[in-house]
């Protein structure tokens, strides 16, 4: 019995060593301290990055590289930003833009998935329009507006049209690539089990293609957002202000402070969305048993 | 207001958030234009950032009337072979000029410099090329020659000037006042000096109406013109109040108030009138042709000033002239 | 062209006639199978042995319809065919239970029924309680057993098994031999069973077919005697296995 | 002997049956007829698609949906297109644009690969700037122009800057995703074999991440091209015409015929580039033993 | 807590002390190994047998440093460790030859030398002429042999082998047994050899270690008698294998 005790102690000590190498696992629920530690680990690099950027920025401004009204420092931009985000109009604009972005993206998702599956399913279709999809993607959103206007008038639908044209190709492309790279051994397994038609897609192909699909979604979001910004800066619809319009007005008026404020806002939106995609991506990898490097 | 429903029950007006569109700004802000249209006509607005978009909207019937600069109006007329739009009134004149950096004091100093204009083939661009042509300089449309003319967006131009990338620019208001206020720059040429034949007036902003809309609903257009005339009058008679209203409207559209000094100087440089200064449009087109930028365009019929002249006559005012012959 | 087309008395479940299979074109072409004919009777347990790379997996793929023969014909007579691959080929994004449910979903088995059968099958392969794990959390042998459960869940008439027990310890394998034999009996399955373990082939097979390598051909077929269930460590099995092994050895050394 | 002959004949007949199911393999070199057949199979869907689009387009125009000056038909656009592409200026413009696109993309590739590897290698860096990368991607090119001008003035470098900012995030993102999804069993194999440092990347990680990387490159190209178009329409640099400039001029002048001509040109360029990427992708899949569906 | 720490006379190459390995956290945690201690002498050929899922692969991963033990320590004394995985884990984008070259590239073997060794190794695993094929063009057993060649190309002192011959036919396996034994002799390797084939364990091992399942522990160790090279079908091996199999069976049934 004493012998066992000694061994247990020794094990505990070694366990502490192991703890330093990697988070200790299998020791029941995580403690609050551990959770706090994890949050801290996920946060400090972000905070450090922000602080560094602000410092560098201010330093450049202080160095007198460019005049203040061309390149204002954080000391001038942050108050402007703060003033902007405390107005109700700002939040209305954000709401309008986010609503458009999300509906547009959802639409692009549906269209992209249908096209992606159709293209990867029917060989002649792929040969015929596979490359056209990428071709469409390279088209600057600005050229779509005359068409959007012809089809839908100056309306939300026109903006949706441009978003879908911008984002759907990425989504379709990601899906097609994902489907192309599904492991042949899984495809064979599916075939033997008699997976066919819709079930083949829901049970096998789509889940197997998910990693690339999510990457495609992320790109699609970026395209959707950029198209939206391009669309919003052309015209105000229904007297609704929007982020894209505000951005373009700041640019038109050479208002560097507001421009920088809105850049920060767009960045923040982009980062928040990306955090969401990353979360999905990590969940996916955990499921597949691929732990991050 | 889609093209199908141009039944006169509604009117959609397009304009820019820009000082040269002040009659629209004031007219909408103070309710002058919707008031003139009356209860029966639903009034709506579309705010554009650039002329071509507004013309496109006129083409497809998305807007029924729009305030436009001369180049988009002429382009729209030319592209549609005279089918899409008519100019029914003037709105603003003047308000452009060539600003240059210190050290350039005469036309001769311009040789070898880089100057920006807002748009290739636009009025300002044509004016600068016209001057170069008169001086006998060799200039091409790709920024080469004795004088390098680079077309670029006004916002870019303001930055480029501040950074010393260009030596000067032919700019409209309020960018003109902005450069003058913020940089070491001075006005080398006031464009008004180029128009002795019209007493220094030249068109900056028009009010254009879709041709089909005009055909079907002349009475609505007449009401619109009534409001337009009232706005212009207000701008001329009570400049303080009108400018304040325009400023408020601008702020609501752009989310920011311009520097008051710049606004004041910009307003001082622009004159508002319902006269479209037709000769300046014609001469501008001739000049564009002369410098090789425009295919010959027959501008005959671009003006439809009868309604305006009727209203002016009601008030006992002087008629304005279109293009005769 | 030593094609052994020994037709048993019962009706044929799988009819392989004079097939050949060539992979690739031109100079790089590999003739995996050449002129092979085998008839598998309904309800027959056919064990297939042969050197590594002799075309056993290819043969099963052809029977399952996953590949088309270059020449010749394979006829599974409309039977439903299930296959257990050499590698487990589980869907990595599904839990063990969900993996086993896939073929049942195809067969439109109701949800409650599916749950029940998953539990039964996991019990059968000695993995009770593992249904919520994911494939990457399993050991190699466990994955193979899940693949077995999945193949059985398919409720097919013809079962193709490619080295199904290769990664299992002797004890677990013995248990699964018994279970497989029982199921084969009960459901009157036709089984094509590829293995490198000649004893295992003799333990389970009604007939053991021996393939040659490069190109794969049937070089011999041994009907297995002995009452079922046979014991893998019995003398009779050892003797028969020795005969087959000698024949195999002869064949392999002829090639080396 | 006669028996063998009969069997051979039968086999031959069956061989023909098999031929109908899939291209006959292993029968020596392919014949010229087969090659022609393959080219035809790769071409007819494309030609059919083009013909269909042209027909539909002309039909819409004939239906009188919109007046000709708003939406001209192929009968008016194709001559304009033909006139454009027969001028030497046009080819100069194409050359200028393609040179910019390719140098910009090459630059973006270098930057993207470096960032991608750095981010997937250093955990704090990923936490700090991983999301920022997507954030940058969602930024419309227009907001970069003031910065490009601040940094580089009106020059080619300014355009390169905008292209890199547009394309590098996609490339980095594709690479990072690819690296994240490298199969753990291959990583373990690499670790045991002592692959470390640069070699670990060149021998293991990059090849394993290639499929997603190529997808990222494709997206990156689309972003690069769009940014370039946006950049070119802002200003003429060094007296050089370019496709983006021509496109924006057509729009400025409300010249629907030229606009459509240039849209077709941009599409063709996009399609040609995509064909190249597809070729790379297929070569990759052949290597990996994943034959297309 | 039956930890068998039988230390042979020679110096230790791998020292496994009182390790445990837990996968996952909280309720889902699985204790794969618990309190295991093994010392492997330099130049020893240690065979490891145990039921499926008992932690054999996990043990090898710990020795290779691919995982960290939850408690306890593993010390490979600075030796270079090579490992052959249960799945082949070849790089699918490289040809067979290039796959085998990878560890040599790491060791900075010159190009010409690499070519020569690839040919030798392919010859050794009986795959001469396959160096330009890609992994997906190989059969399961062939892939396993390429993995063996790759592991041998690493020129390590300690070789970890996880069921290396599981997918091979008896004949090829016998040949590779001889070759492996020869190399082990010549290069004075230390080998940890996991297998389910108890005869194989007795054929090759100096000592056979028997693991229990869930959690994995060493429950017994059998020194193997008999002069090398032993014949796998000899009576002596059959007898020893029977003893070990009985012990294993006892252990597995105790769990079931
Ligand atoms: N997709 C393929 N492309 C090219 N050659 C292939 C392909 N699949 C199999 N082969 C070749 O066909 C032959 C037979 O392969 P197969 O997988 O059927 O062997 P096997 O009998 O199952 O071997 P093992 O016992 O090692 O699994 C081998 O020589 C292999 O190289
Ligand atoms: N990554 C993992 N996550 C969770 N559990 C794991 C993981 N890897 C292994 N296990 C568990 O650890 C135990 C031992 O697994 P291991 O792979 O070492 O078994 P093994 O002895 O190699 O079995 P086999 O002979 O079947 O290959 C198993 O119960 C398995 O479920
Ligand atoms: Mg096989
Ligand atoms: Mg294992």
UniProtKB/TrEMBL annotation, chains A, D:
Localization: Cell membrane
UniProt keywords, alphabetically: Cell membrane, Membrane, Transmembrane, Transmembrane helix, Transport
Lipid bilayer topology: Multi-pass membrane protein
Entries under InterPro entries matching the protein: MetI-like (IPR000515), MetI-like_sf (IPR035906)
Domain of life: Bacteria
Stretches assigned to the ABC transmembrane type-1 domain: 94-277
Keyword check for Transmembrane helix: yes
Sequence intervals crossing the membrane: 47-65, 101-120, 127-152, 158-182, 203-224, 259-280
Primary localisation category: membrane
Pfam family for this entry, one: BPD_transp_1
Entry annotated with the keyword Transmembrane: yes
Alphabetized PANTHER family for the sequence: ALKANE SULFONATE ABC TRANSPORTER-RELATED, MEMBRANE SUBUNIT (PTHR30151), TRANSPORT SYSTEM INTEGRAL MEMBRANE PROTEIN (PTHR30151:SF40)
Family of this protein: Belongs to the binding-protein-dependent transport system permease family.
Protein's recorded name: ABC transporter permease subunit
Annotated source species: Nocardiopsis tropica
TrEMBL record, chains C, E:
Highest taxon in the source lineage: Bacteria
Alphabetized Pfam families for the sequence: ABC_tran (PF00005)
TM regions (residue ranges): none
InterPro entries according to UniProt: AAA+_ATPase (IPR003593), ABC_transporter-like_ATP-bd (IPR003439), ABC_transporter-like_CS (IPR017871), ABC_transporter_ATP-bind (IPR050166), P-loop_NTPase (IPR027417)
CDD domains: ABC_NrtD_SsuB_transporters (cd03293)
Domain ABC transporter residues, every copy: 14-238
Keywords: ATP-binding, Nucleotide-binding, Transport
SUPFAM superfamilies in the cross-refs: P-loop containing nucleoside triphosphate hydrolases
GO molecular function: ATP binding
PANTHER family assigned: ALIPHATIC SULFONATES IMPORT ATP-BINDING PROTEIN SSUB, TAURINE IMPORT ATP-BINDING PROTEIN-RELATED
Protein name: ABC transporter ATP-binding protein
Organism of provenance: Nocardiopsis tropica
């Amino acid at each position: 019995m004493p012998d066992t005790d000694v061994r247990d102690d020794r094990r505990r000590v070694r366990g502490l060593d192991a703890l330093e190498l990697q988070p200790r696992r299998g020791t029941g629920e995580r403690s609050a301290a551990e959770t706090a530690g994890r949050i801290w680990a996920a946060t400090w690099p972000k905070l450090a990055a922000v602080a560094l950027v602000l410092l560098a920025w201010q330093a450049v401004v202080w160095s007198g590289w460019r005049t203040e009204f061309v390149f204002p420092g954080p000391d001038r931009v942050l108050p402007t930003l703060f003033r902007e985000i405390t107005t109700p109009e700002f939040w209305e604009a954000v709401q309008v833009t986010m609503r458009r972005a999300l509906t547009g993206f959802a639409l692009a998702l549906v269209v992209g998935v249908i096209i992606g599956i159709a293209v990867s399913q029917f060989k002649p279709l792929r040969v015929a329009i596979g490359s056209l999809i990428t071709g469409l993607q390279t088209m600057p959103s600005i050229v779509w507006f005359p068409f959007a206007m012809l089809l839908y008038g100056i309306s939300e639908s026109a903006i949706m049209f441009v978003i879908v044209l911008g984002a759907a190709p990425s989504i379709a492309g990601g899906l097609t690539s994902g489907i192309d790279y599904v492991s042949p051994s899984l495809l064979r397994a599916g075939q033997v089990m008699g997976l066919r038609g819709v079930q083949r897609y829901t049970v096998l192909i789509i889940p197997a293609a998910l990693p690339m699909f999510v990457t495609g979604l992320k790109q699609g979001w970026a395209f959707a957002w950029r198209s939206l910004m391009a669309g919003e800066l052309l015209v105000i619809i229904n007297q609704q202000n929007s982020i894209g319009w505000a951005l373009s007005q700041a640019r038109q008026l050479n208002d560097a402070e507001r421009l920088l404020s809105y850049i920060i806002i767009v960045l923040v939106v982009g980062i928040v969305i990306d955090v969401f995609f990353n979360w999905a991506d990590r969940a996916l990898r955990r499921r597949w048993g691929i732990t991050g490097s | 207001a889609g093209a199908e429903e141009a039944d006169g029950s509604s009117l959609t007006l397009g304009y820019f958030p820009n000082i040269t569109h002040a009659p629209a700004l004031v007219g909408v802000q103070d309710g002058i234009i919707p008031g003139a249209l009356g209860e029966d006509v639903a009034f709506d607005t579309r705010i554009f950032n650039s002329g071509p978009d507004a013309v496109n909207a006129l083409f497809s019937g998305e807007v029924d009337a729009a305030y436009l600069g001369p180049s988009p109006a002429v382009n729209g007329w030319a592209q549609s072979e005279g089918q899409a739009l008519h100019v029914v009134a003037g709105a603003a004149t003047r308000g452009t000029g060539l600003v240059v950096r210190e050290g350039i004091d005469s036309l001769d100093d311009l040789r070898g410099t880089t100057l920006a204009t807002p748009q290739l083939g636009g009025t300002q661009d044509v004016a600068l090329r016209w001057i170069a042509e008169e001086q006998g300089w060799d200039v091409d449309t790709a920024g080469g020659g004795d004088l390098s003319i680079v077309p670029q967006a006004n916002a870019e131009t303001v930055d480029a000037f501040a950074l010393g990338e260009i030596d000067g620019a032919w700019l409209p208001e309020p960018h003109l006042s902005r450069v003058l206020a913020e940089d070491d720059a001075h006005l080398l040429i006031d464009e008004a000096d180029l128009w002795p034949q019209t007493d220094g007036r030249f068109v900056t902003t028009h009010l254009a109406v879709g041709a089909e809309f005009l055909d079907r609903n002349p009475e609505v257009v007449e009401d619109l013109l009534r409001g337009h005339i009232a706005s212009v009058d207000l701008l001329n008679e009570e400049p303080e109040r009108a400018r304040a209203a325009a400023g408020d409207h601008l702020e609501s559209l752009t989310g920011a108030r311009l520097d008051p000094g710049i606004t004041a100087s910009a307003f001082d440089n622009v004159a508002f009138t319902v006269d479209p200064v037709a000769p300046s449009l014609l001469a501008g087109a001739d000049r564009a042709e002369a410098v090789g930028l425009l295919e010959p365009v027959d501008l005959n019929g671009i003006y439809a000033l009868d309604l305006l002249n009727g209203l002016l006559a009601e008030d006992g005012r002087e008629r304005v002239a279109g293009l005769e012959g | 062209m030593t094609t052994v087309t020994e037709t048993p008395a019962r009706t044929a479940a799988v009819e392989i006639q004079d097939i050949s299979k060539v992979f690739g074109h031109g100079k790089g072409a590999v003739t995996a199978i050449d002129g092979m004919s085998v008839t598998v009777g309904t309800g027959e347990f056919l064990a297939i042995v042969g050197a590594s790379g002799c075309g056993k997996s290819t043969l099963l793929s052809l029977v399952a319809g996953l590949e088309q023969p270059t020449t010749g014909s394979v006829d599974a007579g409309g039977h439903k065919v299930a296959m257990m691959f050499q590698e487990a080929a589980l869907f990595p994004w599904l839990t063990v239970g969900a993996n086993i449910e896939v073929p049942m979903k195809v067969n439109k088995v109701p949800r409650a029924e599916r749950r029940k059968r998953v539990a039964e099958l996991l019990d059968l392969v000695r993995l009770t309680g593992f249904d919520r794990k994911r494939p990457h959390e399993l050991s190699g042998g466990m994955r193979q057993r899940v693949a077995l459960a999945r193949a059985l869940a398919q409720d097919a008439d013809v079962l193709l098994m490619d080295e199904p027990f290769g990664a299992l310890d002797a004890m677990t394998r013995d248990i699964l031999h018994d279970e497989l034999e029982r199921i084969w009996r009960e459901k009157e399955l036709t089984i094509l069973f590829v293995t490198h373990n000649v004893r295992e082939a003799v333990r389970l097979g009604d007939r053991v077919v021996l393939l040659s390598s490069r190109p794969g051909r049937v070089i011999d077929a041994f009907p297995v005697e002995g009452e079922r269930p046979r014991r893998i460590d019995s003398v009779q099995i050892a003797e028969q296995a020795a005969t087959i092994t000698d024949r195999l050895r002869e064949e392999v050394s002829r090639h080396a």
